[in-house]
Amino acid sequence: MRREGAYAGSVGPVALPVYGTAEITDFAPAEAQPALAESAVRNAAIRVLDVLGSMAGLLLASPILLVLALLIRRDGGKALFSQIRVGKDGVGFQCYKMRSMASDAEARLSSLLESDPQAAAEWAEHRKLRNDPRITPLGHFIRKTSLDELPQLWNVLKGDMSLVGPRPIVPDELAMYGKDAAAYMAQRPGLTGLWQVSGRSDCDYETRVALDIEWNNRRTVLSYLEIIFKTVPAVLAKDGAY
């Protein structure tokens, strides 16, 4: 759910309520030690790839970000939008995007959902709208091309996110994960992921949750690289993007 302006003004990590995350003790059973060691190596390798990839991405994307910032500023308002999302271990962080919505986005959404039952049903199922009145003309373009998410490379470099992982969600979405909330919070949210290469907005919310949890269960360096390579054609094809 993308509610621009809902958490503007907050800075730094924000502690969110804990939703049943399992504690990791210092004394794991002996038979679990190899698995823990393997997991530590995998996580370290992925973090190295995150740092290298985000640094390269920011360097390459900086001219694009500058042009987008100037174009968005011409429409009025700030070029950059930030909102608190749920991070690893349930810790909130400021997630950055290029602004794609009008300044009165929340008022427009409330008015539409109250007056249009079909739009309200679509919002309830997907937490997105195919014909969203909040989005500016330029916003439609940068969302279709995923250019609005380029600032999240900074989140990846900082360690808030990974290049690959579950979708970064706002706190009130966490309840929709139910018993799977702990699995979501066991990993860093991603700039891309299974959802990105599996139809994106065409997926209903239940499918999105299932894909996020599946990634937690099958996360390897090889699958990480596979999803990154699959993301490029998915973005170019604009599959499920709106």
From TrEMBL:
Protein name according to UniProt: Sugar transferase
Boundaries of every Bacterial sugar transferase domain copy: 47-236
Transmembrane segments: 51-72
Classification via Pfam families: Bac_transf
Keyword Transmembrane: yes
UniProt similarity note: Belongs to the bacterial sugar transferase family.
InterPro entries associated with the record: Bact_transf
Keyword Transmembrane included in the entry's annotation: yes
Record's GO cellular component terms: plasma membrane
GO BP terms, alphabetized: polysaccharide biosynthetic process
Organism: Pyruvatibacter mobilis
GO molecular function: phosphotransferase activity, for other substituted phosphate groups
PANTHER family listed in its UniProt record: COLANIC BIOSYNTHESIS UDP-GLUCOSE LIPID CARRIER TRANSFERASE, UNDECAPRENYL-PHOSPHATE GALACTOSE PHOSPHOTRANSFERASE
Keywords: Cell membrane, Exopolysaccharide synthesis, Membrane, Transferase, Transmembrane, Transmembrane helix
Subcellular localization, as worded in the UniProt entry: Cell membrane
